[in-house]
From TrEMBL:
CDD domains according to UniProt: SDR_c5
Listed name of the protein: Oxidoreductase, short chain dehydrogenase/reductase family
Taxonomic source organism: Acaryochloris marina (strain MBIC 11017)
Family: Belongs to the short-chain dehydrogenases/reductases (SDR) family.
Keywords, sorted A to Z: Oxidoreductase
Highest taxon above the source species: Bacteria
Entries under SUPFAM superfamilies matching the protein: NAD(P)-binding Rossmann-fold domains
Gene3D superfamilies hit by this protein: NAD(P)-binding Rossmann-like Domain (3.40.50.720)
UniProt key word Oxidoreductase: yes
One function term, GO molecular function aspect: oxidoreductase activity, acting on the CH-OH group of donors, NAD or NADP as acceptor
Lineage: Bacteria, Bacillati, Cyanobacteriota, Cyanophyceae, Acaryochloridales
Amino acid sequence: MVSIQNQVVLITGASSGIGAACAQAFAPLGVKLLLAARRLSRLQTLATQLEAEFGVHTHTFQLDVRDRTQVESQLQALPPEWSAIDILVNNAGLSRGLDKLYEGSIQDWEEMIDTNIKGLLYVTRTIVPGMVQRQQGHVINIGSIAGHQTYPKGNVYCGSKAAVRAISEGLKQDLLGTPVRVSAVDPGLVETEFSDVRFHGDTERAKAVYADTVPLTPEDIADVVVFCATRPPHVNISELLVLPTAQSGATLVHRQP
């Protein structure tokens, strides 16, 4: 493991799930944590906890990655000690609905495309030029098995995560000749608020997604993210597909009878 002490780590969507777990996993490594999400109060609670437990320096700010003007203004207005971002974890993302394409909600589509694709692009476009200029940086994009395998009624969500996979590959190609690294971490079934969001707060339907099986935890994915970030500079983990043992494909999940 290579030390990343004092490096600035920006995590989007850091208020819960994989984003919050990544903050927890990076905190003991002596980094400076830059935490962004729409739910500022949750961020502040997390930051206070991490500062108390690990003595880590944190800076939180409210950010909706779908808003290009907000992304640019917020990131450009960071205090000088936080502006040189070394590690970007593009975690903000969501799924909405589980419908046949021809019956789907266009509002759901737009929210997924605006968050998962355009939001990731806005943040990346704003931050990566500084990495190239400083000749140091690492972009870690949180994708999904849905970017590898389409499943029934997953249409637009799968398309958005396939786009994340393609964008990650394209960015790495465009950065060839620089020391800036790009990694894609693509989880399978992870128990987070993901299904609650997908089903618009239908908790019982969300619980059924994880029933009678052993899914991944956010901490499992955070461990992988930290592994990518702490490899020697000449090592780039380009893509990792991470599944629970009880899953062998997008729709193939073993459930206890």
